């Protein structure tokens, strides 16, 4: 029997769908200030329009995060064409060392995430839960190799989260959210030179009967949790800003065993509690007059387990990057050059420690070959200092890019580059036999890409063809398969022979008039890795489809979005339990979400968002954790 609460949720889902579906009116010219040709700073480390950037780029603005009801930065990214994801809960929710990550073009541990230009990856995981969506000015996604400008891990692409700065006026807001699985309260205060944001979140338990775990005798429930997050920006001078982000998250998940007597999953097997604290601190110096930019950043993650969980990690990364841009030949050419110094630190269980230091010099020169053709040559020398577990590495990374303007609204680009990634700082300590653990080689290889961009004010069409060839691919396997006498319950990282992927990505956006806007996207690819026996196996989903429509009129904004993952990889666990021989593929994922915003007054607004409106059991990773069932969130915001 369907409960009253379930009926209410289903009724809200129907109302959201009906409220965001209507007949599109006739076209009219968009406002002059609107354009799809956004400014991008990440791809070439200097401001260029998307149309003039020789790489596949996507920009997500802070307003788009709000309009689409994105649960987190992770949530917005995993619905982006060409971006794959791995998480244990909806919106990238994490549980201790069960860290989520996004990956561009199917390469796990091959995407570098930046905050204001500084890396935040730790243990090769690009966890980004420390950055609240409310603190985001925009997110820039650059696909393809970007190792020349950004170093290790920029193999599939780079994602740069650029945070807000104080707007120079006094304002603020308070808001409260209520949902069937979630609620929060938040406050934002803006001064002339500072911005402060604070949020407290509460999550309800997701019933184990609605989730499938790994075997026919175990199921999983995600227990209650809470999280507090804070963001602070201070403009110290016109050129120097200070940014601080902090989050403190408590979560748990429970494993249940099947009770034959009750014919239900009623026996609690494990109760895993997790506590994680994250910090991200950065100073950004950006002198427009001298074209000098420096970023000094520190990011940390402290993980502790409770109950049946034994997680205990302390990690931090320190990064300093200094760059200068020269305009040459009366501004026709440009040269960007700089240096980077980085330290990675890991402490596990208070007894296992690891430090890695690296240094790099990089440069990228763009030359105007003709009125229509620009050629960019890049080079990076990256040095990794030897330590107890890693050999020293001197890695030279070249890159070649071209951009040819077919006309004022259309460009054709190519992007060819070499990239690499060092093994995670935690790799030596995953093994139960640390003294015999495998010392991994860096994974490295080439990415080749060409594409067409057509951007004409109210219309944008982008198509990209790419191919990737990566050697020494990292892969998780059972320890006893590679170390004699090793544990069969412990998974460790090894190098596989190769990873390869080739595919096509298509994105189309159209603003029909002042009210209507829609977007379509598709990706067809073939990500696979090669086993030691010489056979190739699929790594990630081959098919991605997305669609969205936005309607705005005076006080009302509605958004309806669809995302699909299909032709997915083989599941990690067998169909009927760990001892079964019935292998199977991960099921398709169909997400339909909707958001309705209503501004009742100049100061008061209401937002109703619905997620997983089809109420599907959507597997969100290859170990078949499911997304949250049909759920909603209602938010009231008061500005002052």
Give a quick rundown of the structure.
With 640 residues, this protein is mainly beta. 5% of the residues lie in helices and 55% in strands.
What keyword list fits this structure?
single chain; 640 residues; mainly beta; Maltoporin, Chain A; 22-stranded antiparallel beta barrel; five-stranded mixed β-sheet; 36 strands; globular
Give a structural overview.
The protein is mostly beta strands and 640 residues long. It has one domain (4-639): TonB-dependent receptor, beta-barrel domain (Maltoporin, Chain A, Beta Barrel). It has four helices and 36 strands. The strands form five sheets. It has a 22-stranded antiparallel β-barrel. The protein has a five-stranded mixed beta sheet with strand order 3-8-9-6-7. A two-stranded antiparallel sheet has the order 1-2. Strand 30 (528-530) and strand 31 (536-538) form a beta hairpin. The longest helix is centred in the first third of the chain and has 16 residues, at 4-19. Residues 21-32 have low confidence and may be disordered.
């Amino acid at each position: 029997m369907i409960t009253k609460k379930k009926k209410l949720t289903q009724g809200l889902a129907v109302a959201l769908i009906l409220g965001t579906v209507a007949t599109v009116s006739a076209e009219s010219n968009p406002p002059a200030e609107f354009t799809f040709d956004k400014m991008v700073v990440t791809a070439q480390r200097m401001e260029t329009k998307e149309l003039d950037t020789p790489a596949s780029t996507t920009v997500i603005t802070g307003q788009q995060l709000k309009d689409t009801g994105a649960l987190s930065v992770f949530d917005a990214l995993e619905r982006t064409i060409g971006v794959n994801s791995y998480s244990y809960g909806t919106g990238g929710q994490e549980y201790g060392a069960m860290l989520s990550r996004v990956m561009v073009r199917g390469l796990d541990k091959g995407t570098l995430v930046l905050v204001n230009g500084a890396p935040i990856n730790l243990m090769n995981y690009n966890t980004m839960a420390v950055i609240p969506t409310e603190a985001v000015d925009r997110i820039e996604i650059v696909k393809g190799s970007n190792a020349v400008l950004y170093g290790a891990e920029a193999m599939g692409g780079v994602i740069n989260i650029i945070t807000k700065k104080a707007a120079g006026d006094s304002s603020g807001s308070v808001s409260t959210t209520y949902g069937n699985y979630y609620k929060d309260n938040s406050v934002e205060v803006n001064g002339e030179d500072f911005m402060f944001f604070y949020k407290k979140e509460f999550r309800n338990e997701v019933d184990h009967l609605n989730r499938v775990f790994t075997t026919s005798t175990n199921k999983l429930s995600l227990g209650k949790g809470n999280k507090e997050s804070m963001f602070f920006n201070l403009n110290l001078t016109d050129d120097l800003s200070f940014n601080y982000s902090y989050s403190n998250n408590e979560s748990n998940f429970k494993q249940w065993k099947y009770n034959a007597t009750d014919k239900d999953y009623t026996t609690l097997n494990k109760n895993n509690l997790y506590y994680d604290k994250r910090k991200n601190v950065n100073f950004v110096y950006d002198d427009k007059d001298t074209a000098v930019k420096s970023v000094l950043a520190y990011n940390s993650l402290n993980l502790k387990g409770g109950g049946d969980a034994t997680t205990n990690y302390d990690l931090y990364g320190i990064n300093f990057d200094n760059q200068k841009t020269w305009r040459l030949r009366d501004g026709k050419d440009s040269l960007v050059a700089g240096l980077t110094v980085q330290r990675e630190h890991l402490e596990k269980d208070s007894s296992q420690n690891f430090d890695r230091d690296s240094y790099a010099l990089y440069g990228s020169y763009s030359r105007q070959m003709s009125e229509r053709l620009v050629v960019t040559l890049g080079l990076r020398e990256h040095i990794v200092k030897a330590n107890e577990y890693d050999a020293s590495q001197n890695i030279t990374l070249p890159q070649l890019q071209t951009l040819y303007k077919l006309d004022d609204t259309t460009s054709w680009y190519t992007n060819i580059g070499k990239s690499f990634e060092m093994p995670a700082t935690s790799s030596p300590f995953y093994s139960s036999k640390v003294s015999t653990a495998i010392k991994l080689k860096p994974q490295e290889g080439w990415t080749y890409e060409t594409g067409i961009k057509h951007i004409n004010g109210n219309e944008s069409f982008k198509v990209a063809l790419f191919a990737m060839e990566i050697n020494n691919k990292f892969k998780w396997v059972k320890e006893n398969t590679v170390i004699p006498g090793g544990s069969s319950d412990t998974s460790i990282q090894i190098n596989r022979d190769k990873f390869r992927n080739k595919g096509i990505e298509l994105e189309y956006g159209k603003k029909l008039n002042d009210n209507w806007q829609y977007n379509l996207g598709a990706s067809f690819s073939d990500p696979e890795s090669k086993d030691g026996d010489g056979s190739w196996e699929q790594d990630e989903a081959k098919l991605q489809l997305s669609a969205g429509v936005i309607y705005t009129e005076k006080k009302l904004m509605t958004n309806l979005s669809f995302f699909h993952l299909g032709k997915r990889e083989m599941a990690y666990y067998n169909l009927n339990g760990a001892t079964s021989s019935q292998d199977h593929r991960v099921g398709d994922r169909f997400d339909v979400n909707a958001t309705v915003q209503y501004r009742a007054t100049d100061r008061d607004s209401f937002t109703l968002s619905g997620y997983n409106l089809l109420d599907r059991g959507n597997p969100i990773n290859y170990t078949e954790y499911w997304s949250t069932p049909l759920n909603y969130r209602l938010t009231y915001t008061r500005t002052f």
